[in-house]
Design a protein that fits this description.
The protein is mainly beta and 137 residues long. The protein is 5% helix and 51% strand. It has one helix and ten strands.
Length: 137
């Protein structure tokens, strides 16, 4: 099995860090739906400011809020305003299955507005080599 990226939120800013909460990351469901990230799904979070890397599960917050709030122990890994990358993954059986994935990648400005919508595209050449392209959606 191969673990591959299925969705990515690149450059979101942390809008809150609530230590006294039951855990997880709270995200705007409108953003999640656009990228294909589900409630209760485990995601990886990489803090571009500190280099901290964690994994936790997603809960949906208020639609339209552009929220990116770390909760519980995850709140200790980020400060409000930190820029993070959030990635959801999918397991595929064999390398050829990578061609079927079309990971959605959203890029953000400082107010968590989507500035670009990209798609990763893996193709296979006649000789069997893989090629990788980033497409604008």
């Amino acid at each position: 099995m191969i673990k591959a990226v299925r969705a990515k939120l690149h450059g979101m800013r942390v809008t809150g860090a609530k230590l006294d909460y039951h855990g997880s990351i709270t995200l705007d469901p409108e953003i999640c739906r656009r990228a294909g990230i589900y409630p209760l799904e485990f995601v990886y979070i990489w803090n571009k400011n500190s280099g901290q890397r964690i994994s936790t599960y997603v809960i949906y917050g208020q639609p339209g809020s552009r929220a990116c709030q770390l909760n519980g122990s995850a709140a200790r890994t980020c400060q409000v305003g930190d820029e993070v990358i959030i990635s959801a993954v999918e397991y595929v059986q064999k390398p050829a299955d990578l061609c079927d994935l079309k990971p959605q990648v959203l890029l953000f400005d400082a107010e968590n507005n989507v500035t670009e919508h990209l798609e990763y595209d893996v193709t296979r050449a006649a000789n069997g080599d893989f090629d990788f392209n980033v497409l604008t959606v």
